[in-house]
C-alpha cells in the first residue's frame, strides 16, 4: 500500500480513494474519488480527473476546494486504516500524482474572495435551488 495507489475503501458503502501518503501510525491519508462537478467551480477549487487509466470502472475526480474566509467547504480528504482498504484498483501515473500534489498545495493556501469567486458561488447556489 503506497502513495498514489487507487483502492476501494469501506465507508458507508464501497468507494474509491487515492492514497496520498504511505502508512504511518495514524493510518493512510487518502482522498475519495467523487463525481465531477456539474457546474464550473473556477475560483472555488480544482478537480483532478481519474478513471479507467487508474483502474476505475468510471470517470471521477479528486476535488480540492480552496479555503475562503467564512466558507466551510466539504472535503473528501480522510484518514483510513489498513482494514478500511478492501481491494487495490490501480495507481495514478507519476504525472497525475504531481498534478494531485499541486492541487493539494493550492487547496491548503488561504485564499481571498474575489468578485469572480463570489459570482461562481452564487451561480452554484442558484442552480442547486432550481434543482430541488
Question: In words, what does this structure look like?
Answer:
By secondary structure, the protein is an alpha+beta fold. It has one domain: SH3 type barrels (Roll), CATH 2.30.30.110. It has 2 helices and 7 strands. The longest helix is centred in the last third of the chain and has 17 residues, at 115-131. It is globular. The model has no long low-confidence stretch (mean pLDDT 84).
Structural class: alpha+beta
Total helices: the number is: 2
Query: What is the topology, as strand order, of the major beta sheet?
Result: 6-3-2-1-7
Total domains, how many? 1
**Quaternary assembly:** single chain
Intertermini distance: 41 Å
CATH topology: SH3 type barrels
CATH architecture: Roll
* DSSP strand content: 25-35%
Mean pLDDT: 84
Which CATH C-level class is it?
A: Mainly Beta
Poorly predicted sequence stretches spanning 5 or more consecutive residues:
none
Q: Strand-and-helix sequence, N→C? A: EEEEEEEHH
Radius of gyration: 16 Å
- Give a short account of the largest sheet: 5 strands, antiparallel
Amino acid at each position: 500500500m503506497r502513495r498514489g495507489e487507487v483502492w476501494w475503501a469501506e465507508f458507508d458503502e464501497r468507494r474509491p480513494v487515492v492514497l496520498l501518503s504511505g502508512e504511518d501510525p495514524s493510518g493512510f491519508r487518502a482522498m475519495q474519488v467523487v463525481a465531477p462537478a456539474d457546474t464550473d467551480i473556477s475560483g472555488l477549487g480544482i478537480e483532478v480527473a481519474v478513471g479507467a487509466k487508474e483502474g476505475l470502472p468510471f470517470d471521477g475526480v479528486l476535488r480540492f476546494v480552496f479555503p475562503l474566509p467564512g466558507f466551510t467547504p466539504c472535503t473528501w480528504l480522510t484518514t483510513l486504516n489498513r482494514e478500511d482498504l478492501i481491494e487495490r484498483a490501480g495507481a495514478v501515473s507519476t504525472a497525475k500524482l504531481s498534478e494531485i500534489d499541486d492541487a493539494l498545495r493550492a487547496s491548503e493556501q488561504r485564499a481571498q474572495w474575489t468578485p469572480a469567486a463570489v459570482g461562481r458561488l452564487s451561480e452554484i447556489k442558484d442552480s442547486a435551488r432550481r434543482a430541488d
